[in-house]
Amino acid sequence: MSRIHGVIGPTARGVEFWDREREIGQIWKALETSSILLTAPRRFGKTSLMLRLMDQPQDGWWAFFFEVEAVDRPEAFITEIIRTLLRDQRLDRWARQSKKFFGKLANRIEEIELAGTRVSLREQPAPHWQETGRELIERLRGLETKIILIIDEFPLMLERIHKKDNLAAHELLSWLRSLRQNPDLHEKIRWVMGGSIGIEHVLRRIGAGIKEINDLERIHVREFSQDSAREFIQALLRSAGVQRISREILDKFLEVIDIPIPYFIQILVCESLNEMKLQNKRTLSKEMIEQAYENGLLDLYGRRYFEHYYKRLRDYYDPEMADTAKALLTEIARRGSLTKRELWTKFQAHMKGQGDADTFSHLLSDLENDFYLVGDHGRQRFRFATKVLRDWWLRHHAL
Ligand SMILES: Nc1ncnc2c1ncn2[C@@H]1O[C@H](COP(=O)(O)OP(=O)(O)O)[C@@H](O)[C@H]1O
Ligand SMILES: [Mg+2]
What we know:
The chain is of the alpha/beta class. 56% of the residues lie in helices and 11% in strands. It folds into 3 domains: 20-220, P-loop containing nucleotide triphosphate hydrolases (Rossmann fold); 226-305, Helicase, Ruva Protein, domain 3, CATH 1.10.8; 317-397, Winged helix-like DNA-binding domain superfamily/Winged helix DNA-binding domain (Arc Repressor Mutant, subunit A), CATH 1.10.10.10.
Protein backbone atom coordinates (compact mmCIF):
# COMPACT_ATOMS: atom_id res chain seq x y z
CA MET A 1 0.00 0.00 0.00
CA SER A 2 1.36 3.40 -0.94
CA ARG A 3 2.42 5.98 1.59
CA ILE A 4 0.13 8.92 1.80
CA HIS A 5 0.38 12.22 3.60
CA GLY A 6 -2.62 13.54 5.42
CA VAL A 7 -3.71 17.04 4.49
CA ILE A 8 -6.46 19.08 6.09
CA GLY A 9 -7.65 22.18 4.31
CA PRO A 10 -5.28 22.79 1.41
CA THR A 11 -5.87 20.94 -1.84
CA ALA A 12 -4.70 17.34 -1.97
CA ARG A 13 -2.05 16.95 -4.68
CA GLY A 14 0.51 14.39 -5.74
CA VAL A 15 0.92 11.69 -3.12
CA GLU A 16 -1.76 13.31 -0.98
CA PHE A 17 -4.41 12.69 -3.59
CA TRP A 18 -6.50 9.58 -3.03
CA ASP A 19 -8.74 7.70 -5.44
CA ARG A 20 -11.39 9.68 -7.37
CA GLU A 21 -11.21 7.17 -10.19
CA ARG A 22 -14.94 7.33 -10.76
CA GLU A 23 -15.01 11.11 -11.11
CA ILE A 24 -11.83 11.25 -13.18
CA GLY A 25 -13.25 8.69 -15.60
CA GLN A 26 -16.52 10.59 -15.81
CA ILE A 27 -14.77 13.90 -16.40
CA TRP A 28 -12.57 12.70 -19.24
CA LYS A 29 -15.49 10.95 -20.86
CA ALA A 30 -17.60 14.09 -20.65
CA LEU A 31 -14.77 16.29 -21.94
CA GLU A 32 -14.77 14.37 -25.21
CA THR A 33 -17.96 16.16 -26.13
CA SER A 34 -18.70 18.96 -23.70
CA SER A 35 -17.67 21.39 -21.04
CA ILE A 36 -18.41 20.58 -17.41
CA LEU A 37 -19.97 21.95 -14.26
CA LEU A 38 -18.35 20.18 -11.34
CA THR A 39 -20.48 20.49 -8.25
CA ALA A 40 -20.22 19.52 -4.59
CA PRO A 41 -20.33 21.25 -1.23
CA ARG A 42 -17.22 23.04 0.02
CA ARG A 43 -14.37 20.77 0.99
CA PHE A 44 -15.61 17.74 -0.89
CA GLY A 45 -12.51 17.77 -3.05
CA LYS A 46 -13.43 19.72 -6.19
CA THR A 47 -10.32 21.85 -6.38
CA SER A 48 -8.06 18.87 -5.73
CA LEU A 49 -9.80 17.04 -8.53
CA MET A 50 -9.46 19.96 -10.92
CA LEU A 51 -5.78 20.32 -10.18
CA ARG A 52 -5.43 16.62 -10.86
CA LEU A 53 -6.67 17.25 -14.39
CA MET A 54 -3.91 19.78 -14.74
CA ASP A 55 -1.19 17.69 -13.09
CA GLN A 56 -2.04 14.43 -14.81
CA PRO A 57 -3.92 15.16 -18.00
CA GLN A 58 -4.75 12.59 -20.62
CA ASP A 59 -2.52 12.52 -23.67
CA GLY A 60 -3.21 15.39 -25.99
CA TRP A 61 -4.70 17.68 -23.35
CA TRP A 62 -3.40 20.58 -21.29
CA ALA A 63 -5.41 22.07 -18.47
CA PHE A 64 -5.06 25.54 -16.98
CA PHE A 65 -6.40 26.58 -13.63
CA PHE A 66 -7.39 30.18 -12.96
CA GLU A 67 -7.46 31.80 -9.55
CA VAL A 68 -10.64 33.81 -9.70
CA GLU A 69 -11.28 34.22 -6.00
CA ALA A 70 -10.73 37.96 -6.12
CA VAL A 71 -12.41 38.53 -9.46
CA ASP A 72 -15.42 40.83 -9.35
CA ARG A 73 -15.44 42.25 -12.87
CA PRO A 74 -15.22 40.57 -16.27
CA GLU A 75 -12.12 42.64 -17.06
CA ALA A 76 -10.38 41.18 -14.03
CA PHE A 77 -11.42 37.73 -15.19
CA ILE A 78 -9.75 38.24 -18.56
CA THR A 79 -6.70 39.70 -16.84
CA GLU A 80 -6.45 36.62 -14.67
CA ILE A 81 -6.61 34.33 -17.66
CA ILE A 82 -3.85 36.29 -19.38
CA ARG A 83 -1.74 36.33 -16.25
CA THR A 84 -2.02 32.59 -15.75
CA LEU A 85 -1.38 31.69 -19.37
CA LEU A 86 1.66 33.95 -19.60
CA ARG A 87 3.15 32.45 -16.47
CA ASP A 88 2.81 28.91 -17.72
CA GLN A 89 6.03 27.54 -19.16
CA ARG A 90 4.16 25.17 -21.42
CA LEU A 91 3.00 28.25 -23.29
CA ASP A 92 6.32 30.06 -23.68
CA ARG A 93 6.48 29.52 -27.40
CA TRP A 94 2.83 30.38 -27.86
CA ALA A 95 3.30 33.56 -25.85
CA ARG A 96 6.24 34.58 -28.02
CA GLN A 97 4.18 33.98 -31.11
CA SER A 98 1.41 36.08 -29.63
CA LYS A 99 3.71 38.90 -28.63
CA LYS A 100 1.99 41.41 -30.83
CA PHE A 101 -1.37 40.63 -29.31
CA PHE A 102 -0.06 40.97 -25.77
CA GLY A 103 1.87 44.06 -26.76
CA LYS A 104 -1.42 45.70 -27.71
CA LEU A 105 -2.64 45.13 -24.19
CA ALA A 106 0.57 46.46 -22.76
CA ASN A 107 -0.77 49.40 -20.85
CA ARG A 108 -3.85 47.68 -19.60
CA ILE A 109 -2.67 45.08 -17.17
CA GLU A 110 0.05 45.08 -14.60
CA GLU A 111 3.63 44.24 -15.37
CA ILE A 112 4.12 40.71 -16.43
CA GLU A 113 6.94 38.52 -17.65
CA LEU A 114 6.44 37.64 -21.28
CA ALA A 115 8.88 35.13 -22.68
CA GLY A 116 11.93 36.75 -21.20
CA THR A 117 11.01 40.37 -21.77
CA ARG A 118 9.00 42.34 -19.29
CA VAL A 119 5.91 43.78 -20.76
CA SER A 120 4.30 46.38 -18.64
CA LEU A 121 0.66 45.55 -18.29
CA ARG A 122 -1.14 47.89 -15.97
CA GLU A 123 -4.53 46.86 -14.66
CA GLN A 124 -7.21 49.06 -16.07
CA PRO A 125 -10.67 48.13 -17.15
CA ALA A 126 -10.21 46.95 -20.68
CA PRO A 127 -12.79 48.81 -22.70
CA HIS A 128 -13.50 45.79 -24.84
CA TRP A 129 -12.98 42.81 -22.64
CA GLN A 130 -15.22 40.65 -24.80
CA GLU A 131 -13.12 41.13 -27.92
CA THR A 132 -9.83 40.92 -26.09
CA GLY A 133 -10.92 37.78 -24.30
CA ARG A 134 -12.25 36.22 -27.44
CA GLU A 135 -9.08 36.87 -29.36
CA LEU A 136 -7.09 35.43 -26.50
CA ILE A 137 -9.11 32.23 -26.43
CA GLU A 138 -9.02 31.97 -30.21
CA ARG A 139 -5.26 32.18 -30.10
CA LEU A 140 -5.19 29.04 -27.99
CA ARG A 141 -6.42 27.13 -31.00
CA GLY A 142 -2.92 27.47 -32.41
CA LEU A 143 -1.65 24.99 -29.84
CA GLU A 144 -1.21 21.37 -30.74
CA THR A 145 -3.06 20.04 -27.73
CA LYS A 146 -6.64 20.35 -26.66
CA ILE A 147 -7.16 22.81 -23.89
CA ILE A 148 -9.15 22.77 -20.66
CA LEU A 149 -9.80 26.09 -18.98
CA ILE A 150 -10.72 25.61 -15.33
CA ILE A 151 -12.68 28.18 -13.38
CA ASP A 152 -13.14 27.17 -9.78
CA GLU A 153 -16.04 28.56 -7.74
CA PHE A 154 -17.73 29.96 -10.81
CA PRO A 155 -21.11 30.72 -9.17
CA LEU A 156 -19.37 32.73 -6.44
CA MET A 157 -17.45 34.74 -9.01
CA LEU A 158 -20.64 35.38 -10.89
CA GLU A 159 -22.32 36.56 -7.74
CA ARG A 160 -19.49 38.98 -6.94
CA ILE A 161 -19.63 40.40 -10.43
CA HIS A 162 -23.41 40.73 -10.22
CA LYS A 163 -23.18 42.61 -6.92
CA LYS A 164 -21.04 45.24 -8.60
CA ASP A 165 -22.74 45.32 -11.93
CA ASN A 166 -25.66 43.13 -12.88
CA LEU A 167 -25.31 43.74 -16.59
CA ALA A 168 -21.68 42.63 -16.49
CA ALA A 169 -22.71 39.30 -14.95
CA HIS A 170 -25.19 38.73 -17.79
CA GLU A 171 -22.61 39.70 -20.36
CA LEU A 172 -20.05 37.33 -18.96
CA LEU A 173 -22.52 34.46 -18.93
CA SER A 174 -23.47 35.03 -22.57
CA TRP A 175 -19.90 35.59 -23.61
CA LEU A 176 -18.81 32.29 -22.07
CA ARG A 177 -21.77 30.53 -23.59
CA SER A 178 -21.02 31.88 -27.04
CA LEU A 179 -17.41 30.71 -26.78
CA ARG A 180 -18.53 27.25 -25.72
CA GLN A 181 -20.96 27.04 -28.57
CA ASN A 182 -18.63 28.22 -31.27
CA PRO A 183 -17.81 25.07 -33.30
CA ASP A 184 -14.28 26.22 -34.20
CA LEU A 185 -13.41 26.78 -30.57
CA HIS A 186 -15.26 23.71 -29.41
CA GLU A 187 -12.96 21.57 -31.49
CA LYS A 188 -10.09 22.38 -29.16
CA ILE A 189 -11.29 24.10 -26.04
CA ARG A 190 -13.32 22.95 -23.06
CA TRP A 191 -14.28 24.66 -19.86
CA VAL A 192 -14.55 23.12 -16.43
CA MET A 193 -16.48 25.22 -13.94
CA GLY A 194 -16.52 24.32 -10.28
CA GLY A 195 -19.17 25.32 -7.80
CA SER A 196 -19.80 24.91 -4.08
CA ILE A 197 -23.09 26.72 -4.10
CA GLY A 198 -26.06 25.95 -6.25
CA ILE A 199 -25.72 27.87 -9.48
CA GLU A 200 -29.50 27.92 -10.00
CA HIS A 201 -29.86 30.19 -7.02
CA VAL A 202 -27.27 32.62 -8.33
CA LEU A 203 -28.78 32.63 -11.80
CA ARG A 204 -32.18 33.36 -10.37
CA ARG A 205 -30.86 36.20 -8.31
CA ILE A 206 -29.09 37.85 -11.18
CA GLY A 207 -32.17 37.33 -13.33
CA ALA A 208 -30.55 34.96 -15.83
CA GLY A 209 -32.09 31.76 -17.08
CA ILE A 210 -30.76 28.25 -16.63
CA LYS A 211 -30.30 28.15 -20.42
CA GLU A 212 -27.09 30.16 -19.93
CA ILE A 213 -25.41 27.06 -18.57
CA ASN A 214 -27.53 24.14 -19.69
CA ASP A 215 -24.95 23.03 -22.25
CA LEU A 216 -22.57 22.16 -19.40
CA GLU A 217 -22.49 18.53 -18.40
CA ARG A 218 -22.97 18.26 -14.66
CA ILE A 219 -20.72 16.01 -12.69
CA HIS A 220 -21.24 15.69 -9.01
CA VAL A 221 -18.21 15.06 -6.80
CA ARG A 222 -19.35 12.55 -4.27
CA GLU A 223 -18.02 10.93 -1.16
CA PHE A 224 -15.60 7.99 -1.37
CA SER A 225 -17.02 4.49 -1.67
CA GLN A 226 -16.97 2.46 1.55
CA ASP A 227 -14.13 0.29 0.25
CA SER A 228 -12.05 3.21 -0.90
CA ALA A 229 -12.65 5.03 2.39
CA ARG A 230 -11.59 1.96 4.34
CA GLU A 231 -8.35 1.68 2.38
CA PHE A 232 -7.74 5.41 2.66
CA ILE A 233 -8.10 5.36 6.45
CA GLN A 234 -5.83 2.36 6.62
CA ALA A 235 -3.22 4.05 4.44
CA LEU A 236 -3.31 7.24 6.51
CA LEU A 237 -2.95 5.31 9.76
CA ARG A 238 -0.11 3.15 8.38
CA SER A 239 1.73 6.21 7.13
CA ALA A 240 1.43 7.69 10.60
CA GLY A 241 3.08 4.58 12.00
CA VAL A 242 0.10 2.87 13.61
CA GLN A 243 0.94 -0.83 13.61
CA ARG A 244 -2.15 -2.79 14.39
CA ILE A 245 -5.34 -1.66 12.74
CA SER A 246 -8.21 -4.04 13.41
CA ARG A 247 -11.26 -4.37 11.23
CA GLU A 248 -13.31 -3.22 14.21
CA ILE A 249 -11.43 0.06 14.36
CA LEU A 250 -11.87 0.67 10.65
CA ASP A 251 -15.57 -0.09 11.00
CA LYS A 252 -15.77 2.38 13.85
CA PHE A 253 -14.23 5.12 11.70
CA LEU A 254 -16.74 4.46 8.97
CA GLU A 255 -19.65 4.34 11.37
CA VAL A 256 -18.72 7.65 12.97
CA ILE A 257 -18.05 9.36 9.63
CA ASP A 258 -21.25 8.02 8.08
CA ILE A 259 -20.84 9.42 4.57
CA PRO A 260 -17.10 9.13 3.83
CA ILE A 261 -16.20 12.61 2.69
CA PRO A 262 -12.40 12.81 2.37
CA TYR A 263 -12.05 16.01 4.38
CA PHE A 264 -13.89 14.51 7.34
CA ILE A 265 -11.85 11.33 7.11
CA GLN A 266 -8.66 13.37 7.21
CA ILE A 267 -9.79 15.29 10.27
CA LEU A 268 -11.09 12.25 12.10
CA VAL A 269 -7.91 10.26 11.48
CA CYS A 270 -5.69 13.16 12.50
CA GLU A 271 -7.69 13.92 15.64
CA SER A 272 -7.84 10.25 16.61
CA LEU A 273 -4.07 10.04 16.30
CA ASN A 274 -3.75 13.12 18.48
CA GLU A 275 -6.00 11.50 21.04
CA MET A 276 -3.89 8.34 20.94
CA LYS A 277 -0.70 10.29 21.51
CA LEU A 278 -2.31 12.25 24.30
CA GLN A 279 -3.12 8.99 26.05
CA ASN A 280 0.38 7.70 25.37
CA LYS A 281 -0.89 4.66 23.49
CA ARG A 282 0.25 2.96 20.33
CA THR A 283 -3.05 1.58 19.17
CA LEU A 284 -6.41 3.23 18.65
CA SER A 285 -9.54 2.51 20.64
CA LYS A 286 -13.16 3.15 19.68
CA GLU A 287 -13.42 5.74 22.44
CA MET A 288 -10.56 7.72 20.94
CA ILE A 289 -12.40 7.88 17.63
CA GLU A 290 -15.58 9.03 19.36
CA GLN A 291 -13.63 11.69 21.23
CA ALA A 292 -12.04 12.83 18.00
CA TYR A 293 -15.48 13.16 16.43
CA GLU A 294 -17.07 15.08 19.29
CA ASN A 295 -14.20 17.39 20.11
CA GLY A 296 -12.17 17.56 16.94
CA LEU A 297 -14.61 17.28 14.10
CA LEU A 298 -17.79 18.82 15.53
CA ASP A 299 -16.19 21.49 17.68
CA LEU A 300 -12.75 22.48 16.56
CA TYR A 301 -13.13 22.07 12.81
CA GLY A 302 -16.91 22.24 12.72
CA ARG A 303 -16.90 25.81 13.89
CA ARG A 304 -14.91 26.91 10.89
CA TYR A 305 -16.34 24.51 8.40
CA PHE A 306 -20.05 24.64 9.08
CA GLU A 307 -20.55 28.17 10.29
CA HIS A 308 -20.87 29.35 6.72
CA TYR A 309 -23.89 27.08 6.25
CA TYR A 310 -25.51 29.01 9.04
CA LYS A 311 -24.39 32.47 7.99
CA ARG A 312 -25.16 31.96 4.34
CA LEU A 313 -28.89 31.86 5.06
CA ARG A 314 -28.62 35.44 6.20
CA ASP A 315 -26.89 36.44 2.99
CA TYR A 316 -29.45 34.76 0.84
CA TYR A 317 -32.70 35.75 2.45
CA ASP A 318 -34.33 38.55 4.32
CA PRO A 319 -34.23 38.03 8.09
CA GLU A 320 -37.70 36.54 8.31
CA MET A 321 -37.07 34.01 5.60
CA ALA A 322 -33.65 33.15 7.06
CA ASP A 323 -35.30 32.48 10.41
CA THR A 324 -37.89 30.29 8.78
CA ALA A 325 -35.19 28.31 6.98
CA LYS A 326 -33.33 27.86 10.27
CA ALA A 327 -36.47 26.72 12.05
CA LEU A 328 -37.15 24.13 9.37
CA LEU A 329 -33.58 22.89 9.53
CA THR A 330 -33.68 22.64 13.30
CA GLU A 331 -36.87 20.62 13.17
CA ILE A 332 -35.40 18.25 10.60
CA ALA A 333 -32.22 17.93 12.65
CA ARG A 334 -34.23 17.01 15.74
CA ARG A 335 -36.50 14.50 14.10
CA GLY A 336 -34.19 13.01 11.51
CA SER A 337 -36.53 13.71 8.61
CA LEU A 338 -39.81 15.42 7.83
CA THR A 339 -42.31 14.99 5.05
CA LYS A 340 -42.83 17.81 2.60
CA ARG A 341 -46.33 18.26 3.97
CA GLU A 342 -45.05 18.64 7.54
CA LEU A 343 -42.49 21.17 6.36
CA TRP A 344 -45.14 23.11 4.47
CA THR A 345 -47.28 23.34 7.62
CA LYS A 346 -44.31 24.55 9.64
CA PHE A 347 -43.35 26.98 6.91
CA GLN A 348 -46.81 28.53 6.84
CA ALA A 349 -46.94 28.82 10.61
CA HIS A 350 -43.57 30.59 10.60
CA MET A 351 -44.43 32.96 7.81
CA LYS A 352 -47.65 33.86 9.57
CA GLY A 353 -49.79 33.36 6.52
CA GLN A 354 -47.36 35.27 4.25
CA GLY A 355 -45.67 32.25 2.75
CA ASP A 356 -46.88 31.07 -0.62
CA ALA A 357 -46.27 27.70 -2.25
CA ASP A 358 -43.73 29.04 -4.76
CA THR A 359 -41.54 30.59 -2.09
CA PHE A 360 -41.71 27.37 -0.12
CA SER A 361 -40.78 25.30 -3.10
CA HIS A 362 -37.83 27.58 -3.96
CA LEU A 363 -36.62 27.43 -0.41
CA LEU A 364 -36.66 23.65 -0.40
CA SER A 365 -34.80 23.38 -3.67
CA ASP A 366 -32.25 25.96 -2.53
CA LEU A 367 -31.61 23.98 0.61
CA GLU A 368 -31.16 20.90 -1.54
CA ASN A 369 -28.99 22.58 -4.17
CA ASP A 370 -26.83 24.15 -1.51
CA PHE A 371 -26.30 20.77 0.13
CA TYR A 372 -28.15 21.23 3.38
CA LEU A 373 -30.87 18.70 2.64
CA VAL A 374 -31.60 15.64 0.60
CA GLY A 375 -35.09 14.75 -0.59
CA ASP A 376 -36.03 11.07 -0.48
CA HIS A 377 -39.01 9.18 -1.93
CA GLY A 378 -39.48 11.46 -4.89
CA ARG A 379 -38.73 14.51 -2.73
CA GLN A 380 -41.60 13.80 -0.38
CA ARG A 381 -39.37 13.44 2.69
CA PHE A 382 -36.36 15.58 3.60
CA ARG A 383 -33.31 14.92 5.78
CA PHE A 384 -29.87 16.44 6.31
CA ALA A 385 -27.38 15.79 3.52
CA THR A 386 -24.77 14.56 6.00
CA LYS A 387 -24.84 13.21 9.52
CA VAL A 388 -21.98 15.52 10.46
CA LEU A 389 -23.91 18.63 9.45
CA ARG A 390 -26.95 17.39 11.32
CA ASP A 391 -24.95 16.64 14.47
CA TRP A 392 -23.28 20.03 14.21
CA TRP A 393 -26.61 21.80 13.74
CA LEU A 394 -28.08 20.00 16.73
CA ARG A 395 -25.14 20.91 18.87
CA HIS A 396 -24.79 24.56 17.92
CA HIS A 397 -28.05 25.80 16.55
CA ALA A 398 -30.89 23.80 17.98
CA LEU A 399 -31.39 25.51 21.29
N1 LIG B 1 -8.67 13.09 -3.42
C1 LIG B 1 -8.43 13.43 -2.16
N2 LIG B 1 -7.56 12.70 -1.41
C2 LIG B 1 -7.33 13.03 -0.14
N3 LIG B 1 -7.90 14.05 0.51
C3 LIG B 1 -8.77 14.82 -0.16
C4 LIG B 1 -9.08 14.56 -1.53
N4 LIG B 1 -9.96 15.46 -1.93
C5 LIG B 1 -10.21 16.27 -0.89
N5 LIG B 1 -9.50 15.90 0.20
C6 LIG B 1 -9.57 16.52 1.53
O1 LIG B 1 -10.56 17.55 1.47
C7 LIG B 1 -9.98 18.83 1.70
C8 LIG B 1 -10.61 19.84 0.77
O2 LIG B 1 -10.30 19.55 -0.58
P1 LIG B 1 -10.57 20.62 -1.74
O3 LIG B 1 -10.12 19.99 -3.00
O4 LIG B 1 -10.02 21.93 -1.36
O5 LIG B 1 -12.18 20.68 -1.71
P2 LIG B 1 -13.16 21.76 -2.36
O6 LIG B 1 -12.46 22.40 -3.50
O7 LIG B 1 -14.35 20.96 -2.78
O8 LIG B 1 -13.51 22.73 -1.26
C9 LIG B 1 -8.49 18.63 1.52
O9 LIG B 1 -7.75 19.51 2.35
C10 LIG B 1 -8.31 17.20 1.99
O10 LIG B 1 -8.30 17.16 3.39
MG1 LIG C 1 -12.22 24.44 -3.73
